[in-house]
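ESCALATION

Customer reports they have been waiting on this structure for their group meeting. Please prioritize. Original submission:
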Amino acid sequence: MTRLVDVPAQFDDRSFDQFAGAFAEAAKDGGRLLFDAHAAEWASPYGLVGLLVAGQAGRGGGGGGGGGGGGGGGGSTGTEKPLLTAPTQAEVLTYWARAGFFREAADLFEVHGRVPKLKAQDESDVLLPVTPVRAAEDVHAVVSKIQQRASAILASELGLDPKATMGFAMALSEACQNIVEHAGTGGWVAVQRYHWRQKLGRRVVVIAVADAGVGFRHSLEPTQSKRFGARWGDAAALEAALIQGVSRFRDPGRGQGLAGIRRYLARWDGKIAIRSGTARIAIVPKWDDDVPLKDGLPPFPGAQVLIIIPEPESTRK
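Update from on-call: job pushed to the front of the queue and completed.
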């Protein structure tokens, strides 16, 4: 039997829990999954990489049953690809293609709908199309590919100090490295710039990283569960990783990745949010109204990281 998973019309971090709930409900009974995106009107990089994670987990690969130890969404155990109905709006379809989504989706889904073949063109506001990360070499390639272009954007458009561009490369590298070290499987990263009129009236750069791996709870459980005792779970694992800088590695100097990102974002009034299993944690800047910690969310495989770097208010024109 085919189980339907609706993709939200406005698919981003705000509607992600709705998608995760639909995925968890559909996946628990087994059967082939059908991801219906025909009515999609817009998707952020976070939505696109999250959809790829669901496709990977829905085929039974990539640790879909782990969800960070939070019962993360299961998925069929066969080799049959999930189905995906592509957006019907031409501009949405074109953006998904330009953002590199369909290139990655071809290996995960049986895609239904007319997917545009793009000619070589300026990627406009797509700084880094959806790009796979499976090994440390991929992280280096991603960072070197984007560093020069992103540095120009950060300095000229967001008006950030050139020193901030070094921190941006670090933040991107550490977010990707998290996949390699903790996920136990591959994942994806995408970077885009926006003029965020509704929330900020400012330009922003957004980094989205997602994987369908074991999640934070499972990764940190061997070293941290006893310390937290009855409190141990997805939320405690995220708190340990982001707030306390805990790592599964005992080596001195390890585990500073997320802490380093946090310090960098604090200097530039940025935001980071991490979702894993049934919990989500965020460092919330003053311009945002997000909730710092949520628990009891619909389970979802692996981990999803969102980083937002805004244009400083002092540079607004």
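Sent to customer with the following note: Confidence is low (pLDDT under 50) at residues 61-77, 250-255.
Escalation resolved.
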